[in-house]
């Protein structure tokens, strides 16, 4: 330290904050994701992770993919999911809908009771925000996945 006063000045009055979205290089975005198998292939990078990762596929009003946002990375058998973190990228991208997707490092794609609970919570949060949650796909081993929509586990949007 040089002995100079290093305190930040106090802010007075309203502060302007700018939030921007940065596009990163990654898997190319397909024109359209029509099936859970398409979502599984698009999010394939999660499948080989050694920890549980929870991602959101962002969709426009025509259900065309805008991008993939990894919302959280957890431990070998759990991931802390925060609705604000899940929907932040969707709001920034003006997404009309999302598909939730996460991996099970155990390679067994069977949804846990916690997976089902958080899915229902996120569907409700999406309804409040006006963002349609279309499915939650759980990835297992190579080419293995479970679509909660196809299994009738929760009431997803259309």
List the helices and strands and how they pair.
Blueprint: H1 36-42, H2 44-47, E1 53-59, E2 65-73, H3 83-92, E3 97-103, H4 113-129, E4 132-139, E5 145-147
Parallel strand pairs: 3-4
Antiparallel strand pairs: 1-2, 1-3, 4-5
Task: Provide a descriptive summary of the structure in words.
With 158 residues, this protein is an alpha+beta fold. It has one domain (36-147): Cytidine Deaminase, domain 2, CATH 3.40.140.10. Helices cover 24% and strands 22% of the residues. The chain has four helices and five strands; from the N terminus they run H-H-E-E-H-E-H-E-E. It has helices spanning 36-42, 44-47, 83-92, 113-129, and strands spanning 53-59, 65-73, 97-103, 132-139, 145-147. It has a five-stranded mixed beta sheet with strand order 2-1-3-4-5, sandwiched between helices. It is globular.
> What number is the mean pLDDT?
86
Low-confidence stretches: none
CATH architecture descriptor text: 3-Layer(aba) Sandwich
How would you describe the oligomerization state of the chains in this entry? single chain
Structural class of the helices, strands and pairings? Answer: alpha+beta
- The ordered H/E elements are HHEEHEHEE
CATH-derived topology: Cytidine Deaminase, domain 2
CATH class: Alpha Beta
Widest sheet: strand ordering: 2-1-3-4-5
Roughly how much helix do the residues carry, as a percent range? 10-25%
Strand content: 15-25%
Tell me the name of the CATH homologous superfamily.
Answer: Cytidine Deaminase, domain 2
Number of strands: 5
Distance between the termini: 59 Å
